[in-house]
Each structure stands twice: as structure tokens, then as C-alpha cells.
Fold:
Amino acid sequence: MRARALGAQAGEDALAAERSRADEASQVQGAKDGDSSVWDGWFQRFYPNLFRYAYIRLRRRAEAEEIASQVFVEAYRGIARYTYTGKPVLAWLYRIAHNLVYDRLKFEERRSVLQVDSPAATDITDGPESIIANIDLLNAIDTLTDEQRDVVILRYFLGMSAQEVSGVIGKTPAAVFSLQARALVALRGRLGEEFRL
Structure:
């Protein structure tokens, strides 16, 4: 009885995933045709996650807002070359955000500009201990490999499932879990065994 219920659930999940892919394929075609409602929907749906990703990487609100907005400008410019392959549109947008953040960090590195901004200084209303813990966590995240950092940000700060992360970064769910496990071990090594995300 339980096996039959699990099989039925798996079939429903597969059907829902297929409908979602068909819906996204239709949206991509609409975006290519210049349908502003598709672009508006994508902006409403994806901007918050793209902003949070950029903010965690850059730690400056204005730059994160600029990057998240620039993602849509770049996507609009490149939609004619984009081919929907069944991966979530968010994976494409995330890759654009990743590249924009990387370019910004490289530019800053070349200019040798060192800015020490409090992470979320305008957002944090907790006491000094909480602010220090957030700074320590963000600094520890900076020591991870790029792939580990992206998995931690997407899983714990943006709340994506391992399956969603796998679609975004182009890795299998098993690879996502492996990257996540290695990242958490590294973070515990830097922040202590009591560290929990």
C-alpha cells in the first residue's frame, strides 16, 4: 500500500516537473517575443534571490541592488541567444549574477580598494554579539571554494532545496550534498564545533 502511494506521488511529481518545464519554455518564448509581462514576472520572482546572492558576496546594499538589476538588463540583451534546455530560468539568471559579481570583485581587486563595510549595517538591529557573529560567518564563507560558497548561499541564505540548487549550478543533487557537507565541515573548523546553519 505504501509503495503504491509513493509510486503515485513520484508520478505526480514528475508530471508537475514536466508542466513546470513546459511553462518555463513558454515563458522563454514570450520573453524572446518581448512580452513585458514575462519580464515583469521574472523580475518579481527572481530579483529577491539574486539580490541576496549579490549582497552576501559583496556586502554592500547599493552594489547588490545594482548587480541584481543588471542581471535583467544582461538577460534582456542576451535572450535571443538563450536556448531553453529544461534547466530552470533561475539557473541562467544566477549564472549572469555570478559573472557580474565575479567581475565586480576582480575589478575591486585590481584597484586594490579595501572597503570594510559592516554586513547589513543598515539591516541589523541585534546587539554587537550578533553583528560580530554575522561578520565572522561571512568571513568564514569567503574562505570556501567558489562552488562550496555558492551552495551554502543558495541552500541556507536563499532557502533553495538541493534539487533546486543542482539545477542552478549544474551539478547533480549528490554533488550538491557533497559540496554542502565539505563546506559545513570547513565552516565548523573556522567557527567552532558549536556552529550551526
